[in-house]
Amino acid sequence: MIMAGKKGIIMGMANKFSMAYGIAESLKANGADIIFTAQTEYFKEKIKEIAGTFSANEIFICDVAEDQAIEKTFDEIYTKLGTIDFIVHSIAFSDKNELKGKYLNTSRSNFLNAMNISCYSFTEVCRSAQNIMPNGGSIISLTYYGSEKVVPNYNVMALAKSALECSVRYLANDLGEFGIRVNSISAGPLKTLAASGVGDFSKILEYDRNRSPLKRNITQKDIGDACAFLLSDMASGITGEIIHVDCGCNTIGAKFND
Predict the structure, then answer these.
(1) Do 138 and 230 meet the contact criterion of CB atoms below 8 Å apart?
(2) What's residue 137's pLDDT?
(3) How high is the pLDDT of residue 253?
(4) Which of 103, 154, 170, 207 is catalytic?
(5) Distance set, CA 196 to CA 44, 47, 192, 205, 212 (Å)
(6) Would you call 103 a catalytic residue per the annotation?
(7) Residue 128 near residue 109 (C-beta atoms within 8 A)
């Protein structure tokens, strides 16, 4: 029960296959109280039943692409539920039609949109967090190894994740004086709604499984348990880090382009 007495926000859960769902399960199992946000009323209705299983009776709307949306949502959460101890940012986006073929063909509009939603929104989350985390806390984002090595069809998301990881280090430095830790989990490939948009994703899963020292792919529980640890006081000395949770695939040289 390493999260007993802790209350926080999970942003971006789409369904039971989301990484955010696995994180919510581990946090709940370790005693945390969870608040969910959804992009629109449509997505709110989609996760309403799931949220209920975590005793989250209210879901807050937060479209991170809109100006001041995050600040307004966090202010609403603070007014209704008080201060929080952690935030999980599980939000990323790219036009799925540009997650195949060559990165060379990325459009300007999708590049800017992917950076805005996948990277800048995390900066705004951290800035707004100061107002509702007066006692310090922990903030987590989710990234992927495509930020470090070429992964076929990951394309513009690789650049967005690379920028996100750099943001983690700078934000950790900025927020450290307030007792707020900022880290990111670089998870191995997992079948999620977002991953389904990446071309030939099944081949990526097979490649990682065959190369992994553990001879398997990552699971929701693997990611959730690692996240629970980083959000807990047990990780009080860890900030500004990119934590790889990938069954050891990173130990076997370069991937896909070796």
Answers:
(1) yes
(2) 98
(3) 43
(4) 154
(5) 21, 19, 6, 11, 21
(6) no
(7) no
How many other C-beta atoms can be found within 10 angstroms of the C-beta atom of residue 96?
12
The residue among 22 and 247 whose pLDDT is bigger is: 22
Q: Where are the beta strands (DSSP E) in the chain?
A: 7-11, 33-38, 59-61, 86-89, 137-143, 180-187, 242-245
Query: Which one, of 50, 69, 68, lies nearest residue 59 by Cα?
Result: 50
* Side-chain-side CA neighbours of residue 76 (13 Å): 15
Residue-wise pLDDT tens digits, 48-105: 999 999 998 789 999 999 999 999 999 999 999 999 999 999 999 999 999 989 999 9
Query: Is the pLDDT score of 189 beyond 90?
Result: no
Counting other chains too, the contacts that 127-131 makes at CB distance below 8 Å and 24 or more residues apart are 127/71, 128/70, 128/71, 128/74, 129/74, 129/87, 129/175, 129/180, 130/175, 130/178, 130/180, 131/71, 131/74, 131/75, 131/78
Interatomic CA distance for residues 93 and 117, integer angstroms: 6
Joined tokens for residue 181: 């830790």
What is the per-residue pLDDT across 10-61, written as a single tens digit (0 to 9) for each?
999 999 989 999 999 999 999 999 999 999 999 999 999 999 999 987 899 9
DSSP state, residue 70: H
Q: Which of 78, 103, 120, 144 does the annotation list as catalytic?
A: 144
The type of residue at 3 is: M
CA-wise closest residue to 219 among 51, 21, 11, 54: 21
| Residue 31 Ramachandran class (φ > 0 left, ψ -120 to 50 alpha, else beta) | left
Phi, psi of 232 (to 5 degrees): -90, 170
